[in-house]
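Here is one chain, start to finish.
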Amino acid sequence: MSLLVSLTHETSYEYDKAVSLSPHVIRLRPAPHSRTKIISYSLQVEPAKQFLNWQQDPFGNYQARLVFPEKTNRLRILVDLIVEIQVFNPFDFFLEPDAEEAPFIYSDSLRRELMPYLSASDGSYALANYISQLRKDGILQKARTVDYLVRLNHRVYEDISYVIRMEPGVQTCTETLEKKSGSCRDSAFLLVQILRHIGLAARFVSGYLIQLKPDEVPIDGPAGPTEDFTDLHAWAEVYLPGAGWVGLDPTSGLLTGEGHIPLAAVPEPSSASPVFGYSDPANAKFHFHMAVKRIKESPRVTKPYTEERWEKILKLGKKIDDKLRKNDIRLSIGGEPTFVSDTDRQNPQWNTDALGTEKLSLAEELLANLRKRFAPGSVVQVTQGKWYPGEPLPRWSLNAFWRRDGDKLWQEEAYLSSAKEKKDADRDDELTKAETIGEQICVSLGLSNKHMIPLFEDGFYYLWKEGQLPKWEKPESPKDDDFSFESLERRRVLSVLEKDFKLKKGFAIPLQYNYILKRWESSEWTYRRERLYLVPGDSPAGLRLPFASIADSFRLSAVLTDVAEPSKLPSYKELSKKVKERSQKEGKFYPNGKELPIRSTLVIEPRLGVLHIFLPPIERLDIWLDLLTSIEDACLRTKLPIVFEGYEPPHDNRLSLFRITPDPGVIEVNLHPSSDFEELAEKTRILYEEAKAIKLSAEKFQIGGRHSGTGGGNHITVGAMTPADSPFLRRPDLLRSLVSYWQHHPSLSYLFSGLFVGPTSQAPRLDEGRDEALYEFELAAKQVDERKKDLPPWLIDRLFRNLLVDLTGNTHRAEISIDKLYPPAGPRLGLVELRAFEMPPHYRMSVVQQLLVLSLLGRLWEKPYKKSPVHWGTELHDRFLLPHYVWNDFKDVLRDLKDHGYPFEDDDFLPFFEFRFPVYGTLKKDDIFLELRLALEPWNVLGEESSSFGTSRSVDSAVERLQVRVEGWTNERFQLACNGVEVPLRPTGKPGEAVAGIRFKAWNLPFTLHPNLPVQNPLVFDIWDSWSNRPVAGCRYYVSHPGGRAYETFPVNSFEAESRRISRFFPDGHSGGLKESPRKVEKSHPYTLDLRWVDKNI
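Its structure:
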């Protein structure tokens, strides 16, 4: 992200009479060592009649010397400059080995050169005392140089309060220390003197400070300026061998950044005054004005749209909503947004692992916050989620259920507890509470408490199991966040052995609803052993009931279902009344008779200091509501809070839910669907706000600074609020149109996707990796076109199910997944899932992304898309992996939507383009402009490798791809070379513009294709002039830090990520001494140069 900012600085003196002016020296031009790029600079001085000479002082600073030959009654100085604000890392510097720890000693030759900056001009007693105190406090204790300087700079910032002081000159160190306050120049002078006294060369710097209002207010730390701001400022610079001059700003306690623009860097403040000169004695009015203005902002994820544009998008969304409603599409849209931790990016649970203690804690907090916003009166249930091969246990799932009719499921929020552990819980007290609430649940259900069965752990088994484990010196060694089989097994055994086997584990109540007699029933259980021992394990007791030791077969329940439209659910008030009437009657006991025992069981288990209620499977929603109300009635009488777990309620359109589940590296939020755009936009905003409030982020950064989504995707699910209303079932040609349209426009696959694309990704296109798929799809589409609406739902599934799959036949891992549409053996929900969408970093981008999907479906509903598939061939992974062609194709999509009444602007999707394809660097040479941009590279999944951990397949991410774009290009004169090889530039249709892709080996991984090929780093681009037969300009791109710095941690924010990216590009450095024109490589694709085919590499 780069910003062009203009700075205007005006100073004027109005005299009450004409005066003579002495020669003036003006130091208001950015110094040569400024790290912030100066685009343009202007200095205007009145009176206009003057003699101007630009000079450099002994320290290399620019200064203007003006002579005024005539008297004047006005002196006006106007500075106007334009700068490019691009974030850089102030800590990104090299240190000589002798200077890695401070304080250090300069070499003799360097000391002589730095002599003016080592001589302390203030030797006051107050300063000596202050330095002595710094030593006592350990501030000047030997440490890493960076830590040493940061510590000292921050101490001065803490001790000296900032004040605006209009008096000229600089306070002495004594004055500043006694007052404990000063202006920026006073603090800077104090820090310079301290540094010199401890043997470090330092200089005083005056300059401009530009501070821009942040796009987003941080959760922690200072919020920054509320408006864009600029002022004259002063700071210190210290000389570090290897790094050079490093800026320290004691006014803020920080190192200097891109907003610090030096004007004069000198040994003493007297040589840094912005304006120096005299006039005849006269009365003068002084006027001073400074302003900063943004003149060009590139689209960025922290502020993707201006407020004006966002209002227009919201209005467009309402218009599209009205159009969809008018066409009776009955469309709903939901999604699966994902989030990662914003504070612990290194942790495996936020990179590769599915489970983690922090992940569960944050998910519980997010669920609680979202319940307040989305579903007051809802009920939370912790259930088991997905279980993948290789994982020791199923993953957890946090679910919030509520009634769609607006009535409450649960009245008393105080009795819904959190599942967080309470370490000080007393086990006997826990069991007493469990037994008490179990008895009251029996009362509410109209049952005798004799049906409560105590549950016990099998102590003999665990004693045997403990003997099978290897001896560990420290029993507490297994870590809570270690989810390996060995650690889980050891924790499981230790947790059980710590408890008394004689104590109960919980209580079970066999429970089943009799739909004919309309009552709850229970039964007695008989078992061979004296007690009922649970199956060994550490899952909830409700999942470990020993049914095999109770009976060979169990009673079946006759479920009465209504084939007609579901009736209205009983209200909470009606349910409460029914339960209270039932609880006033004597509980019924159901002794063993001819009937078989009941299998479904409600279990009360005190665990981790909290009462958990394990719900049995219930076939009908109204009966599930009855059970829930009965449990709440028991809670009201006992005043005991609980946590629900067990089986989820039956799927019913009268019940809404959202859930939070873990996925590798992310938290996934399965949002309830939205039926209109306004609801969608508000819901998305709330989700992002609540996630940010608990320090969850929607973005990640690669080690080299590459910006990406969370990696978990943002899958979009479309259908209807009820399966019967699904537009894909009512109009079978809609799915056929959707697949065809997506196949015709590769930009829909690649503009919004994540890092991993291609045949082996998690969302491969229909035409990626399966050559026969298009042929078979065309035949299936022909049948849909012929049958039109006369197509049963099951046949839609059969026609497309085996085509919309990945290479292994997985129906879920496809770009357009229909495994929830109408599968014969699965959930027939009428849903289609679009999986090639990465998580947008900003909620407004997510809203626009979803609005695009709604518009596409609206357009395809109005006019079916019955075109034959396009056989892209090699163009798909050659042409359409380059940003230019992706954007051109997407603009075709937008034009088509506009023609059908869905008028998006191209600029609405520029934030996605800049996020997906960031600029790595630009070069300007005369009329030629060159731009390097990230392109896409489909990484291969390699063959199986056996290791001590099992069999795995690695993703080969060794190859990367860039796009180079040129403007002002003359083919007859210039050639572009990359590492001495001609780049196959192709004209774009715009005069003088051409693009090409560069594919190269960036990394040497342990498992990779062609391990013998060397890494191609750096990439040297030369603009070859055939008229002069030599390169006239060039640039260099490095895969990693050019100074050899190996980053050990991921960037903490987008600023550090950007600084890492820009540090790898240099807008100079063409190949010197070249005498031969670039050579050609015949193996290149039409649009891409593959440097791996260069002869010297093979």
